[in-house]
Protein backbone atom coordinates (compact mmCIF):
# COMPACT_ATOMS: atom_id res chain seq x y z
CA UNK A 1 0.00 0.00 0.00
CA UNK A 2 2.91 2.34 0.75
CA UNK A 3 4.29 2.09 -2.79
CA UNK A 4 0.90 2.69 -4.38
CA UNK A 5 0.47 5.86 -2.32
CA UNK A 6 4.05 6.91 -3.04
CA UNK A 7 3.65 6.45 -6.81
CA UNK A 8 0.32 8.30 -6.79
CA UNK A 9 1.78 11.23 -4.84
CA UNK A 10 4.89 11.33 -7.07
CA UNK A 11 2.70 11.33 -10.20
CA UNK A 12 0.50 14.12 -8.85
CA UNK A 13 3.56 16.22 -7.95
CA UNK A 14 5.15 15.59 -11.36
CA UNK A 15 1.95 16.60 -13.18
CA UNK A 16 1.52 19.67 -10.98
CA UNK A 17 5.12 20.76 -11.62
CA UNK A 18 4.66 20.27 -15.36
CA UNK A 19 1.45 22.32 -15.40
CA UNK A 20 2.93 25.15 -13.33
CA UNK A 21 6.07 25.26 -15.50
CA UNK A 22 3.93 25.34 -18.65
CA UNK A 23 1.82 28.18 -17.25
CA UNK A 24 4.89 30.14 -16.16
CA UNK A 25 6.52 29.61 -19.56
CA UNK A 26 3.48 31.04 -21.29
CA UNK A 27 2.87 33.81 -18.77
CA UNK A 28 6.48 35.04 -18.52
CA UNK A 29 7.41 34.12 -22.11
CA UNK A 30 10.23 31.82 -21.08
CA UNK A 31 11.83 29.89 -23.93
CA UNK A 32 11.81 26.12 -23.66
CA UNK A 33 15.35 24.79 -23.39
CA UNK A 34 16.06 21.28 -24.66
CA UNK A 35 17.39 19.07 -21.86
CA UNK A 36 18.26 15.43 -21.91
CA UNK A 37 16.23 13.14 -19.70
CA UNK A 38 18.29 11.74 -16.78
CA UNK A 39 21.21 14.05 -17.44
CA UNK A 40 22.89 16.49 -15.07
CA UNK A 41 22.59 19.29 -17.65
CA UNK A 42 25.44 21.35 -16.28
CA UNK A 43 25.59 24.96 -17.38
CA UNK A 44 29.39 25.16 -17.61
CA UNK A 45 32.52 23.51 -16.25
CA UNK A 46 32.41 25.45 -12.97
CA UNK A 47 28.83 24.31 -12.40
CA UNK A 48 29.87 20.71 -13.08
CA UNK A 49 32.69 20.92 -10.53
CA UNK A 50 30.55 22.57 -7.86
CA UNK A 51 27.70 20.11 -8.45
CA UNK A 52 30.04 17.12 -8.24
CA UNK A 53 31.59 18.48 -5.04
CA UNK A 54 28.18 19.15 -3.53
CA UNK A 55 26.93 15.67 -4.40
CA UNK A 56 30.06 14.06 -2.96
CA UNK A 57 29.87 16.13 0.21
CA UNK A 58 26.16 15.39 0.65
CA UNK A 59 26.65 11.65 0.11
CA UNK A 60 29.47 11.47 2.65
CA UNK A 61 27.54 13.61 5.12
CA UNK A 62 24.40 11.50 4.79
CA UNK A 63 26.27 8.22 5.25
CA UNK A 64 28.03 9.50 8.37
CA UNK A 65 24.82 11.06 9.71
CA UNK A 66 22.90 7.84 9.07
CA UNK A 67 25.37 5.75 11.06
CA UNK A 68 25.48 8.25 13.93
CA UNK A 69 21.71 8.54 14.07
CA UNK A 70 21.08 4.80 13.84
CA UNK A 71 23.56 3.83 16.53
CA UNK A 72 23.44 6.74 18.95
CA UNK A 73 20.35 8.89 18.43
CA UNK A 74 17.52 6.71 17.11
CA UNK A 75 14.89 9.17 18.33
CA UNK A 76 16.36 11.95 16.13
CA UNK A 77 16.23 9.94 12.89
CA UNK A 78 14.11 12.65 11.23
CA UNK A 79 17.28 14.77 11.03
CA UNK A 80 18.33 12.62 8.07
CA UNK A 81 15.21 13.73 6.19
CA UNK A 82 15.88 17.35 7.08
CA UNK A 83 19.46 16.99 5.83
CA UNK A 84 18.30 15.46 2.54
CA UNK A 85 15.86 18.34 2.07
CA UNK A 86 18.58 20.89 2.87
CA UNK A 87 20.94 19.37 0.30
CA UNK A 88 18.12 19.26 -2.27
CA UNK A 89 17.43 22.97 -1.70
CA UNK A 90 21.14 23.78 -1.96
CA UNK A 91 21.42 21.82 -5.22
CA UNK A 92 18.44 23.65 -6.75
CA UNK A 93 19.78 27.01 -5.58
CA UNK A 94 23.18 26.37 -7.18
CA UNK A 95 21.50 25.32 -10.42
CA UNK A 96 19.24 28.40 -10.41
CA UNK A 97 22.22 30.67 -9.77
CA UNK A 98 24.15 29.25 -12.72
CA UNK A 99 21.08 29.45 -14.96
CA UNK A 100 20.55 33.05 -13.95
CA UNK A 101 24.17 34.15 -14.19
CA UNK A 102 25.77 32.10 -16.97
CA UNK A 103 23.16 31.15 -19.58
CA UNK A 104 21.55 33.00 -22.42
CA UNK A 105 18.16 32.14 -20.87
CA UNK A 106 18.30 33.61 -17.32
CA UNK A 107 14.54 33.24 -16.88
CA UNK A 108 15.05 29.48 -16.66
CA UNK A 109 16.12 30.08 -13.06
CA UNK A 110 12.53 31.07 -12.27
CA UNK A 111 11.35 27.64 -13.40
CA UNK A 112 14.07 25.92 -11.36
CA UNK A 113 13.18 27.83 -8.19
CA UNK A 114 9.49 27.17 -8.77
CA UNK A 115 10.15 23.45 -9.13
CA UNK A 116 12.17 23.49 -5.91
CA UNK A 117 9.37 25.27 -4.03
CA UNK A 118 6.70 22.88 -5.33
CA UNK A 119 8.75 19.83 -4.33
CA UNK A 120 9.37 21.34 -0.90
CA UNK A 121 5.67 22.09 -0.44
CA UNK A 122 4.79 18.55 -1.52
CA UNK A 123 7.22 17.08 1.02
CA UNK A 124 5.81 19.27 3.79
CA UNK A 125 2.23 18.29 2.90
CA UNK A 126 3.08 14.58 2.79
CA UNK A 127 4.77 14.77 6.20
CA UNK A 128 2.21 17.05 7.83
CA UNK A 129 -0.83 15.03 6.76
CA UNK A 130 0.99 11.68 7.13
CA UNK A 131 -0.03 10.66 3.62
CA UNK A 132 2.50 7.83 3.56
CA UNK A 133 1.60 6.56 7.01
CA UNK A 134 3.78 6.79 10.09
CA UNK A 135 6.97 5.78 8.31
CA UNK A 136 8.21 9.35 8.20
CA UNK A 137 8.71 11.22 11.46
UniProtKB/TrEMBL annotation:
A Pfam family this chain is assigned to: DUF4181
Key words, A-Z: Membrane, Transmembrane, Transmembrane helix
Name of the molecule in the record: DUF4181 domain-containing protein
Top-level lineage group: Bacteria
Transmembrane region(s): 6-24, 54-72, 78-98, 110-132
Organism: Paenibacillus macquariensis
InterPro entries assigned: DUF4181
Amino acid sequence: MFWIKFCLIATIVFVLISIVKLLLRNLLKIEKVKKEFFSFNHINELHRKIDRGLRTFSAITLVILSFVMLFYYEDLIYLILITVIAFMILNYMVRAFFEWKYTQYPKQSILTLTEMCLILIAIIIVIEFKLLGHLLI
